[in-house]
């Protein structure tokens, strides 16, 4: 299959196949459809990749179904060995992956290399280690015994987002493969190059043909075909709540496949009067701007106790206005790249304008950050809870700051959202932290920090942030189903 060659300003040349990875080989789409991959820095064409249609999804599913019979007989140790080899290969190609995320996602090279890529490797190694820890329970029953066992669903699919393509792909791939499933991965059409590179390494790691299939394609074409497919038994999706609903409806209208959804967020950060304000301001600044705010667990709503509000604002401005070099994200000296696309740039800037129109005050930022798809870190004060910038996920470096007078009000405002992915508490009182964390309607809480991602800790949301979990042993449960087996020792006797 044809390779595309991309010469990068950091001196690297990226070579990835242009085809769909189906049954262990790269192939063109059946009708010749392609998708253009653009550089977010200047909107120039990086590559043309094959774009999967329904017929291509069918081919991938059939290949996976054929591979399933033998793959189900592999031992956990064997599956772990495959994942270990893949982890080693990703690590060996870490600089290529970081360069790829810089050129098609706009993620600064060092952020990707030391963050996303490193975590992807750790994820694969973690599931390689615990593949043999998928266990059931022994259950005492009258006149017999019973046990449960966890079994793979079989043919599964993962639809991954554009904001952290390698890392989140490995969040799905690791537990899916460790638990004995075969997998179709649909990569994001905006940032598909990591998936193309990963497919090369899947082949090199020696996975049997059909066990892992990787398809670039549009959501309304390949994604819809996956959600509707009668032979796919589980689909995991990370992305917007609107698309999550479409997948859920398609699953219900087809074969009632299991669905796991990790959707949007509107993360509150609660800063109490006894907090270390330097620490709180540092994490609030980073947590509301990292990856250009293109993070589902962004700290996008700050609630600050009225007694420390002015002091916090001063420190928050100080931390947020420190110079971070903006420019070409392939350079190791650049700390801020462009957002992923012109469309995303326009979306974020429209929310900033809407905030002004609704009466909020811009504390800093709020203007176009020069040429290209660069968006400034923007903070609003004098906001009201019903404003769009407070209620809706912007998926950009935009944060609102409000006051609270007591713990009850802080919890009420934090929970006043349809989203429930992540929340953040800053306090020196461990009793307060425990009490508030138990009252917040979210899937995970961080205390006195932001951005803690550990592969052995589950990640996921409640409310309209979805259901199901990535990472941790809980992800293995999410990729398996429970079977009960009961034995009677009565023989032909009757109770």
Automatic annotation (TrEMBL):
Main enzyme class: oxidoreductase
Annotated keywords: Oxidoreductase
EC annotation from Swiss-Prot or TrEMBL: 1.2.1.3
Gene Ontology molecular-function annotations: aldehyde dehydrogenase (NAD+) activity
Alphabetical GO biological process terms: carboxylic acid biosynthetic process
Catalyzed reactions per annotation: an aldehyde + NAD(+) + H2O = a carboxylate + NADH + 2 H(+)
Domain of life: Eukaryota
Residues of the Aldehyde dehydrogenase domain: 26-485
Pfam family, one: Aldedh
Family, similarity comment: Belongs to the aldehyde dehydrogenase family.
Protein name as it appears in the record: aldehyde dehydrogenase (NAD(+))
């Amino acid at each position: 299959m044809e390779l595309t060659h991309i010469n990068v300003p950091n001196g690297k040349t990226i070579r990835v196949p242009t085809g769909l990875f189906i049954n262990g080989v790269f192939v063109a789409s059946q009708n010749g459809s392609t998708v253009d991959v653009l550089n977010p820095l200047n909107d120039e064409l990086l590559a043309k990749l094959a774009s999967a249609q329904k017929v291509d999804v069918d081919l991938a599913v059939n290949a996976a179904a054929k591979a399933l019979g033998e793959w189900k007989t592999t031992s956990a140790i064997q599956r772990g060995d495959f994942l270990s080899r893949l982890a080693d290969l990703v690590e060996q190609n870490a600089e290529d992956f970081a360069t790829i995320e810089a050129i098609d996602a706009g993620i600064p090279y060092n952020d990707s290399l030391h963050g996303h890529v490193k975590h992807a490797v750790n994820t694969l190694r973690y599931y390689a280690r615990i593949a043999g820890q998928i266990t059931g329970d022994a259950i005492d029953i009258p006149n017999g015994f019973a046990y449960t066992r966890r079994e793979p669903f079989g043919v599964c699919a993962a639809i991954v987002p554009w904001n952290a393509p390698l890392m989140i792909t490995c969040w799905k791939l690791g537990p899916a493969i460790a638990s004995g499933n075969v997998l179709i991965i649909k990569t994001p059409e905006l940032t598909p190059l990591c998936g193309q590179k990963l497919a090369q390494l899947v082949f090199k790691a020696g996975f049997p043909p059909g066990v892992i299939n990787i398809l670039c394609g549009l959501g309304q074409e390949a994604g819809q075909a996956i959600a509707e497919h009668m032979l796919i038994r589980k689909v995991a999706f990370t992305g917007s709540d609107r698309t999550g609903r479409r997948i859920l409806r398609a699953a219900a209208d087809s074969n009632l496949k299991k669905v796991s959804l990790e959707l949007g967020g509107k993360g509150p950060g609660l800063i109490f009067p006894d907090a270390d304000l330097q620490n709180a301001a540092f994490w609030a600044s980073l947590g509301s701007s990292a990856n250009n705010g293109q993070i589902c667990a962004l700290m996008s709503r700050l609630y600050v106790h009225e007694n420390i509000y002015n002091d916090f604002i001063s420190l928050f401005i100080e931390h947020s206005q420190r110079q971070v070099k903006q420019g070409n994200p392939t350079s190791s000296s650049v700390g801020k790249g462009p957002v992923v696309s012109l469309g995303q740039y326009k979306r974020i800037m429209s929310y900033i304008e809407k905030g002004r129109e609704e009466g909020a005050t811009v504390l800093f930022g709020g203007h176009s950050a020069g040429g290209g798809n660069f968006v400034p870190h923007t903070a609003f004060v004098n906001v009201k809870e019903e404003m769009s910038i407070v209620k809706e996920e912007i998926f950009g470096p935009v944060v609102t700051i409000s006051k609270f007078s007591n713990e009850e009000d802080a919890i009420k405002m934090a929970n006043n959202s349809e989203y429930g992915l992540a929340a953040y508490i800053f306090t020196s009182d461990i009793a307060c932290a425990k009490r508030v964390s138990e009252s917040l309607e979210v899937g995970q809480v961080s205390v006195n920090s932001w951005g803690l991602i550990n592969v052995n800790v589950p990640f996921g949301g409640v409310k309209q942030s979805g259901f199901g979990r990535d990472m941790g042993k809980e992800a293995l449960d999410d990729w398996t189903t429970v079977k009960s087996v009961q034995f009677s020792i009565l023989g032909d006797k009757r109770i």
